[in-house]
Amino acid sequence: MKQWNNITIIGVGLIGGSLAKALKKAGLVKNVTGYGTREESLQKAQQLGVVDQYTLSLQEAVQGADVVVLAVPLGAMEAVLKEMQPFLSEETLLTDVGSAKTSVLNAVKAAFGRIPKRFVAGHPIAGKEKSGVEAACENLFVDHRVILTPTAETDKGALAELTELWQATGACVSEMTPAFHDEVFAATSHLPHLLAFGLVNLLNEHEELGNVFQYTAGGFRDFTRIASSDAVMWRDIALTNRDAIVKWLNHYQAEIQALTELVGSGDGQRLHDYFAQAKQARDEHIVKPNEIKDGSQTKP
Amino acid sequence: MKQWNNITIIGVGLIGGSLAKALKKAGLVKNVTGYGTREESLQKAQQLGVVDQYTLSLQEAVQGADVVVLAVPLGAMEAVLKEMQPFLSEETLLTDVGSAKTSVLNAVKAAFGRIPKRFVAGHPIAGKEKSGVEAACENLFVDHRVILTPTAETDKGALAELTELWQATGACVSEMTPAFHDEVFAATSHLPHLLAFGLVNLLNEHEELGNVFQYTAGGFRDFTRIASSDAVMWRDIALTNRDAIVKWLNHYQAEIQALTELVGSGDGQRLHDYFAQAKQARDEHIVKPNEIKDGSQTKP
Hints:
Two copies of one chain form a homodimer.
Chain A: E1 4-10, H1 14-25, E2 29-35, H2 39-47, E3 53-55, H3 58-62, E4 67-70, H4 77-84, E5 93-96, H5 102-112, E6 119-120, E7 122-124, E8 145-148, H6 156-167, E9 172-175, H7 178-205, H8 218-223, H9 231-240, H10 242-265, H11 268-285
Parallel strand pairs in A: 1-2, 1-4, 2-3, 4-5, 5-6, 8-9
Antiparallel strand pairs in A: 7-8
Family (chains A, B): Belongs to the prephenate/arogenate dehydrogenase family.
Protein name (chains A, B): prephenate dehydrogenase
Keywords (chains A, B): Amino-acid biosynthesis, Aromatic amino acid biosynthesis, NAD, Oxidoreductase, Tyrosine biosynthesis
């Protein structure tokens, strides 16, 4: 397996920090540099052993790096890419961890005027409702998917290197087109997050029932766990994957409108079938972490 | 604490079975009788030690019982109540564990022509996505709420006895009017369950993306856990608390319509504030199991 001398993490938060820790644990990298704009947070990352050193200079951060990982919020991608562009070597493997991919490719094009051969966009399907480097964890990606979205311009060698790098963290790597990625994750991730934010805001606003949260149980806690996610991250996802998200929110509204009419109809047989179908689909299809295997379908 | 000689559980599934086990563990009851319509399931309950004996005769089940607990699906309440009415002593403490309360009171009135003094409706806020007596667990109610919904007719002694009985299982007991109960749980429980069923059905139906469930992660699993709940139970809840559920589905649709427009607008500041408000509300208000205390607010 290829060893890397210098990896730079741009934005040492939960995902960037967890990647650094996982690669160190795997013995794949000698030296990790952290870049960010808040020195306090970078000092913390160094104290925690997540990075070997840090810098507030983007030029220093990317010059001499073998791999540069962009782990900043989606909304900061373009500005960071434009600032690093004059200093980044053509030989450096450049990747990102953003939750929407078309917008990242557009940001790369805007910064470089083209897609550099050794840029490969990526998205690890892992997270926590906690953010920040303190939450970083070397096992975050074990048995989780990482989606890479290469384009026609992507160098095959760079793609293979990045695949190997993510596999070293314990992740299962797949490939998709950027557009398919954005559609799939609008449906399976962005939509449920927005639905959970919406439910919490709805109940929080309805003052006439008092503090109804006190009557919620485990089901509600689980359902709304993702509503404790970082607001900046979700603002940027909503902004950068807007069209696909609006499309799936509209699909969902139509589904709920039909369900509302079904409840209103009082048709017991159809209600039973509706719930039984969902239960069956979930019990059959939902991936359990230990069922994810490279290259295999995850349907049990 | 009052000891009971004979408790009868009508419907020995997850909730009825867990209550029997919890009361035995607490030493509150000498003898538990199970009643049901499927002998195989009752044999299983006896083998597991959940009930001391069982009967397929409702007359046998309720004659001589000190406490009768109705733990059948909401849709079966009225028929069971009508069948037991000729045999039930005025001295027997009668209760239920249904998730909607107005409909249970209507079923009791239909069966008895009035609300018997020693009937007290109840709702333990506990569950699992698994059902059946095999899933029954003596700790299911520990640090969970149980809502009792007494009416003007309810005997104070019966209410006090039932409160003590539930407290012996480790639960925190509160009181509400039936109508307020149904409104609160339409919002905090029935609504999220239906939203989760709806999301799974939506994604299951959209064949053009393939099996998208394979790309889901922990957030989706948690969000949809409640969509693995029992279809008969949820059919009956949808039928018996229909008006409150339709009202909250409509509230939610309006919320999601507004959120869809907000995403479409691309207004980053307002999107950020929307997500931050939900995150703050959830982080502040969501009850953690160990924070539920009798008589105290659960807001941390």
